[in-house]
Please model this.
Amino acid sequence: MEGYLSEKEQWEAIKLWIRENGLWIVAGVAVGAAGIGGYRWYQQYRDQLAMQAGAKYERLSEAFERGDRTQGLVLLGELERESASSPYLDQARMMAARAYVVSGELDKAAKELETVAAHSKDREIVLIARLRLARVQIAEHKPDLALATLNSGPAGAFESRYDEVRGDAYYAKGDKASALKEYLQARAINVAGGPDASEL
Model:
């Protein structure tokens, strides 16, 4: 018996193999192509949603900047419904909270900040939201709640600002000794070269 098949026998073996496995090959190629096409479609869909959320956030930001709080809040509602997982939503809630503070609606500002602090996936945004929430709580004459908010997690890069607002909370309670201690601690961090968080 020869160790090698003739050319005709090789061709017949290939045709037989294709007949037996051809359907599986075609199915595999089709599934692979569908998977690649589906992945690309999904990526384009996500990119489109991100662009839409970004455009809506821009309009929302412009509305709040020109003092049109009603339009800003309408756009915030749309952003919540259409892009609930977008990072733009956290920023939009922070803007809404600021607008509420300006209009003296501290309870509504606190609600927006609580939502960001509890649900944001961005650690830095959470820290800023907690800091702003504590300030709102002090303004609402709830210094104990403000202290609980500030102490509910690490302060990260904003430690000096947290100490400063803790001092404000203690001062609001009438505990001047604890307030002074917090202020001095905040000052020591700033002198040592802590981050400048003056915009918070």
About this structure: The chain has eight helices and no strands.
